[in-house]
Specification:
Layout: E1 6-11, H1 18-30, E2 34-38, H2 53-61, H3 66-69, E3 72-76, H4 83-98, E4 104-108, E5 125-128, H5 137-146, H6 150-157, H7 163-172, H8 176-195, E6 200-209, E7 212-218, E8 227-228, E9 231-233, H9 240-252, H10 258-264, E10 265-271, E11 282-290, E12 305-312, H11 313-316, H12 327-335
Parallel strand pairs: 1-2, 1-4, 2-3, 4-5, 6-11
Antiparallel strand pairs: 6-7, 6-9, 7-8, 7-12, 10-11
């Protein structure tokens, strides 16, 4: 009989490769029940996170026998970009599934600083695994997106992924969204060639008026078609507040005076998680302007914004999967949209 009630595996699995498969096999050997926490579960698709959490669960499930699948539960996890809050939410999900006094083993591989989250669960026993060869999900996505010949791509990926997962990816690549994400991948790579990997400083504006929030629809990759906060890169001699107001005007034609906006400033926050942007290490200063019961000013998308629009706050929680990068989390910070 196992000394554990369950084994937990945490990751994004974008895509599910042989290294992940070894961790999952260890989890199945360790406990009668396995819980897989799938990160980045409610975010919009992008080149770094092409698969939905349901698709990743299906991809992983198709590599298991029927008996193994019956022992594995897949639970979605949102990205809070706040390590303490994220760990608390992960522990709560597992406790809800297993009960308060469950004996839990955490299966993982301490790769680098990006794996520090594995140290945030003192009540679970960590079982570390060695590196399973030179397999890196970023490199696998690059092969997948940049391959011109499907057969050559398949041959390159075949030694690195479970056969069933590779078959799943080949079928998925026939879907229309693959071409869109492939274009986004190349846009991100081109941006890095031109501008480098940062760090960069950006500014964003959260504008509230009469229980509505102003958003812009991105007109270009990355994130073309997703909703975002008005914002952009800080100019060389700007203060961050000046930059946020400038970007707000450039992208929406916002007409209120600077003095009015400065008086309405209700809060600021810095968002600096290393993984918050797919483009490069980007640190943003978000500014919350609360115009109270002021009638929302007329706006129009401009610059690199295809559209500008006011949304009722009550509608935002249901739009989580339509937002660019971590902009839903920025809104959640100021407005407490979800737990």
């Amino acid at each position: 009989m196992s000394q554990f009630d369950a084994a937990v595996l945490i990751g994004r699995f974008q895509p599910f490769h042989n290294g992940h498969a070894a961790l999952l096999a260890q989890a199945l050997e360790t406990a009668p029940r396995v819980i897989v926490l799938l990160g980045s579960a409610f975010s919009a698709r992008n080149a770094k996170n092409p698969f939905s959490w349901e698709e990743r669960a299906a991809m992983m499930g198709c590599t298991l026998s029927e008996a193994q699948r019956a022992r594995v539960s897949f639970l979605p996890m949102r990205d809070y970009y706040d390590d303490a809050r994220w760990a608390s939410a992960a522990a709560a999900l597992v406790e809800q599934a297993l009960g308060h006094k469950a004996r839990v083993a955490l299966i993982g591989y301490l790769k680098d600083a990006s794996s520090q989250y594995l140290n945030r669960f003192p009540d679970w026993e960590f079982i570390g695994m060695p590196r399973q060869g030179e397999i890196d999900a970023t490199a696998l996505r690059r092969i997948w997106f940049e391959g011109e010949d499907p057969e050559v791509t398949r041959a390159l990926l075949a030694p690195l992924l479970p056969a069933a997962a590779l078959h799943y990816m080949r079928g998925w690549a026939a879907l229309p969204m693959f071409a869109h994400l492939r274009d986004e991948h190349f846009a991100v790579e081109e941006s890095r060639k031109v501008w480098g990997n940062g760090p960069f400083i950006t500014v964003d504006a959260v504008v509230k008026a009469s229980e509505q929030i102003l958003l812009v629809k991105r007109g270009r990759a990355p994130g073309k078609g997703t909703w975002a906060l008005p914002g952009g890169f800080l100019d060389g001699r700007e203060r961050v507040l000046q930059g946020a107001i400038r970007e707000l005007r450039e992208e929406t034609g916002f007409g209120l005076l600077d003095a009015t906006l400065e008086e309405a400033l209700a809060g600021t926050a810095v968002f600096d998680h290393p993984d918050r942007s797919t483009r490069a290490r980007t640190i943003t200063h978000a500014h919350f302007f609360d115009l109270k019961h002021t009638r929302p000013p007329e706006v129009e998308g401009a610059d690199d914004a295809a559209e500008a629009k006011w949304f009722p706050i009550a509608q935002l929680a249901g739009m989580e999967g339509e937002f660019f990068e971590d902009h839903f989390n920025i809104l959640n910070h100021f407005l407490a949209l979800v737990n």
